[in-house]
Amino acid sequence: MDSKTGILLIFCLASVVADSPPIMCPEDKLLECRDSPAMKSLWIEDACRFYDTLRNCYAQYSFECAETNNEVYFTMVQEMKTQKEIFCKEKEPVCDQKQLEACFAQNIDMKTTDLQKPDTFPDLCKSYGEFSKCYEQAVIPCYNDPSFQQTSPWESLFGQIKIICLSTPVCNYFEMSKCNSMMYEGLSLVTTIPTSKFITTSCEGYLQYKPCMEPLLGPCERSRLNPFPEFFQQVTSTDRFVSRLCIRHMKDLLVSASTCYDKTAIQSTVDTTCVNPLMTITFAGEPDERQICRKAKSYIECIGTLVGTECPDDTNAVKSISAYQEAWILETLSMIIGINCPPMGFLPTSKFSQISNALNLDFPKSGFG
């Protein structure tokens, strides 16, 4: 291309640019976006949809208005953002118990169902898949309401139906729940330091509970198919707790229960005097196992000191409650949280060996260090 042709091309391009209209921000279009009759009606009907529609309308002219640094455009956009925060706040989902009731009405015929009669269970469970999906979706907002589980009948009823419908011949959760009910009266009396009433009521119930539950646990534990593992974990945790109480600790605890542990001064102050380490564990990041184990030992020592102060002449009281607490804390930390603490020195060697063997624990000799 020679110099004459190049100059001519530049002249033509300059002419085209010179003939093009200047970039302008169409303020009248922006006002139409906001103030048209249709938009005013939309504002009354649905403020959130109004602002979404307004944003999309403004976006059509964003290039021209931004290029010209148009003050009207920037003011209108800022007003839109500010007003949206005021008039269109994100609404928290509301617990609507009518939705829960509707899930039952659509899928469960309670007139023909008896939750205690297995011959009615096939009809009860025929639509369980659709029922559980409906209920579990509708109930999500309700868990933000602290009173929901205490005041609503639906959660308890859903739990019973879930236990029934997820039961199998190998993992018969329904029968397990019947066995568990034998322990309800005793376990409703549980306290940090066991009272004589708690011990005797629980262990009297245990005499019926154990032969009922024992044949049900083994097959389900060995099975690879466990449709309701959360419930089974609750069952096994309860079983370990009451077995430990009634087989390993009942006799020693009862020696001091009525004369020492039942004292009001002990029962009314233990939970405010001694800090349970399980209540201080957070699940943000890896737990500091050594620190938690030290806190657990300090907790048991605190309980022992309180008991010893209130019952100075009862040498069994401190020894028995300390052993009971160590057994409970070791097992809870291991099974629920996965923390294996070394021996704390309160359990007799034989009882500690029974627990560590049952939990397959192997501890370093260094202890707490």
How would you portray this structure in words?
The protein has 369 residues and is an all-alpha fold. It has four domains: 16-87, no CATH class; 92-165, no CATH class; 169-260; 263-369, no CATH class. The protein has 20 helices and no strands. Helix 4 packs antiparallel against helix 6 and helix 12 runs parallel beside helix 15 (229-261). The longest helix is centred in the middle third of the chain and has 33 residues, at 229-261. The radius of gyration is 35 Å and the shape is elongated. 23% of the residues are buried. The model is unreliable at 3-18 and 355-369 (pLDDT under 50).
Compact description:
With 369 residues, the protein is mainly α. It has helices at residues 3-19, 27-35, 37-45, 47-59, 62-67, 71-87, 97-107, 121-125, 128-138, 148-151, 154-165, 173-181, 184-187, 196-222, 229-261, 264-267, 270-273, 289-310, 315-337, 349-358.
List the helices and strands and how they pair.
Elements: H1 3-19, H2 27-35, H3 37-45, H4 47-59, H5 62-67, H6 71-87, H7 97-107, H8 121-125, H9 128-138, H10 148-151, H11 154-165, H12 173-181, H13 184-187, H14 196-222, H15 229-261, H16 264-267, H17 270-273, H18 289-310, H19 315-337, H20 349-358
